[in-house]
């Protein structure tokens, strides 16, 4: 039950962020590196400021930041963010959802090969969630060439993320204090990865102009703060969903974020979902509720 609830919470918050991503990367053509750094660094600052104020026990302090497994997991999570950013640059929210489904079928198999015990009902759940998402693929007009590269990047990224997550979370405590510290350190390492890539590969002129826009433009500042709050809540729920231990169930729900984003995309950027896509959202929520009650 906890796994499903945390996963759904993370998905709903990330769905709002997906609309920001599509608007920023696909429609406004803003820099993926600049925005990924800003979108990670602001939530890190918020979490770092909030954590000392909470009356939590079992805090580990700065030792979490030195954990190499956490740093590796953070890099894999950021890899997924970059892969989806690439998808949102070239495809609508609905199409990104479609190309991201392959990974959900492969993740349980990869985890089994890595030594994780996967019950047949958990794999059946992953297949059902992916099947619901593929219902949205009817009437697709894009060529295979347009879809295969985002599909490859996203599939490879989510598989690596699941393996790194398994490596880090196996045997970890699931108490609130630990998970909040993990979330904060995760945002720190994601920010660090983005900053290094930005300094190495980013255009200095573009970096200066877009960073300046984020600071000076009122709408850009508001979008950044709202997205930062969404990301902070999503990251905490994401970590708690994985820390509960039932990660084979968590990953298909967590990776369904773009499907839930269809509702937000319709409301805010007029990318209207088809009826089959709305049906798929309802079906996945129903499956998640059923899985939580069994």
From TrEMBL:
Domain EamA: 184-285
Taxonomic superkingdom: Bacteria
Pfam families recorded: EamA
GO cellular component, one term: membrane
InterPro entries: EamA_dom
Keyword tags: Membrane, Transmembrane, Transmembrane helix
TM region positions: 32-54, 123-140, 147-170, 182-203, 224-243, 249-269
Name by which UniProt lists this protein: EamA domain-containing protein
């Amino acid at each position: 039950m906890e796994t499903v609830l945390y996963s759904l919470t993370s998905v709903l918050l990330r769905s709002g962020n997906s609309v920001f991503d599509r608007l920023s990367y696909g429609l406004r053509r803003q820099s993926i590196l600049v925005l990924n750094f800003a979108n990670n660094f602001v939530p890190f600052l918020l979490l770092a400021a909030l954590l000392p104020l909470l009356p939590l026990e079992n805090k580990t302090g700065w030792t979490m930041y030195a954990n190499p497994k956490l740093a590796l997991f953070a890099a894999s999570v950021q890899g997924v963010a970059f892969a989806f950013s690439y998808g949102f640059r070239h495809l609508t929210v609905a199409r990104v959802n479609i190309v991201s489904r392959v990974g959900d079928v492969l993740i349980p198999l990869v985890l089994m090969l890595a030594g994780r015990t996967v019950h047949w009902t958990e794999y059946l759940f992953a297949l059902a969630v992916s099947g619901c998402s593929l219902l949205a693929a009817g009437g697709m007009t894009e060529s295979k060439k347009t879809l295969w590269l985002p599909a490859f990047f996203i599939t490879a990224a989510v598989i690596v993320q699941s393996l790194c997550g398994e490596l880090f979370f196996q045997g970890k405590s699931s108490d609130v204090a630990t998970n909040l510290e993990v979330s904060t350190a995760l945002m720190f390492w994601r920010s660090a990865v983005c900053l290094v890539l930005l300094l190495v590969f980013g255009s200095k002129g573009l970096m200066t102009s877009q960073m300046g826009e984020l600071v000076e433009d009122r709408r850009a500042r508001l979008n950044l703060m709202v997205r930062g709050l969404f990301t902070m809540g999503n990251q905490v729920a994401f970590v708690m969903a994985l820390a509960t231990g039932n990660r084979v169930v968590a990953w298909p729900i967590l990776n369904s974020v773009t499907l839930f984003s269809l509702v937000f995309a319709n409301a805010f950027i007029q990318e209207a979902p088809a009826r089959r896509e709305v049906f798929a959202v309802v079906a996945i929520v129903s499956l998640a509720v059923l899985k939580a009650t069994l």
